[in-house]
Design brief:
By secondary structure, this protein is an alpha+beta fold. The protein has a domain at 39-301: Lipoprotein localisation LolA/LolB/LppX (outer membrane lipoprotein receptor (LolB), chain A, Clam), CATH 2.50.20.10. It is 15% helix and 32% strand. The chain contains 8 helices and 19 strands. The chain has helices spanning 11-14, 61-70, 94-98, 100-104, 114-117, 189-198, 345-356, 393-403; strands spanning 49-50, 75-84, 124-133, 137-144, 147-154, 157-162, 167-171, 204-214, 217-226, 233-241, 247-254, 262-270, 288-291, 321-323, 330-334, 359-363, 366-372, 377-381, 385-389. The strands form 2 sheets. The chain has a 13-stranded mixed beta sheet with strand order 1-8-9-10-11-12-2-3-4-5-6-7-13, with helices on one face. It has a 6-stranded antiparallel beta sheet with strand order 14-15-19-18-17-16, with helices on one face. A hairpin with a 3-residue loop joins strand 18 and strand 19 (385-389). The radius of gyration is 21 Å and the shape is globular. The two termini are 34 Å apart.
Amino acid sequence: MAPYESDDATAAARDEELPTGRRKAARYVVPVAVVGVAAATIGLVPALADSGDPDLPKITAQQLIDKIAKSDVQQLSGTVKVSTDLGLPDLGGLESGLMPGAARGDGDGSSADPQSKLTELVSGTHTLRVAADGPDRQKLSLLESGSEYSLVHDGKDVWGYDSKSNEVYHSAGAESGGRHRTGQPPATPKNFADEALKAVDDTTSVTVDGTARVAGRDAYKLLIRPRQSGTTVGAVSIAVDARTGLPLKFTLTPRSGGAAVLDAGFTQVSFAAPAASTFDFTPPKGAKVTEEKKGAKAPEHTREHATKGGEGLAGGLNGATVLGKGWTSVASFDTGGGAGLPSGGQGGALGGFLGSLGDQVSGKFGKGTVFSTRLVNALITDDGKVYAGAVTKDALVKAANAGK
């Protein structure tokens, strides 16, 4: 059966060929994290939906996907609620020591570095203000208790400002690219919807799941379900604005059940052009300004991801080999050290602590430790290889055995 389905679709519609471009699987980034490896996936809290589902014209899943693809919203402003529930353990601040970049940037030493600052969205609940005016102007503000972090893209300049530390990070000579091409700031429902739709192929069921009111807008609901066993993904739901085709809400629930792992939703949105002054930025008096190092890599949301050896949900990890396909694909890479968790001396204590957070496994690949979240799991072998993906522990072990 074709992956695009609808309760109202005819048999012919269900048998439609999947467009080649949509057979391309998603490219997700799975970086090394506090417990060895964890997801840097950003989740967003459900938007405050209005009561009463709107009565909209019937539409098939294929037509709704086409509507999303043709959406060309260049101007918007609004508020997005952000929350993530990956089920990561509370390490009491230890992650700062294990992940220097998480607290101090990627080596430039600035707390305002967007590559590190936005990783705060990997846990907890957050409020974002977003604005966009074409491909060259976007702004995202992360509102915190008594402070604010802003990321401003204006032409060739990208500014990050952390009011708490009064630090500024500046990147000059940036080109419009990646997600900036869409005219959308990072960390909005559209970003996540685009990635999810890349994963749609013959391993996926897609249906229209009724209608909803989101942020005062009439919307259709698109439901994406993996057909494969072995994945930790249960379903993805996308609320699509009925007029513009812009995704307004994105929800990812795990196969294990319970609360959503990822959920993105506008609580308020306007498609009027933001004031030009929205994107003006001048470093405050006394602020420490850090210039991006020459030759430094562009932030993840401004560059394409490259993979080696295949594509899939585990794709996007630079230098990784992808094993399998679709929702059960696993990214594999070698840490280069020839060893797994630290051992001996102080490193041994750290390795022992991290090891206590995971499950010991063995197979044809040898021995290793599996670290689990509610979505992404990772296996670190004793000889320094890493296998990670939105798959179960058994699927990781099977991938490691196959990759040996």
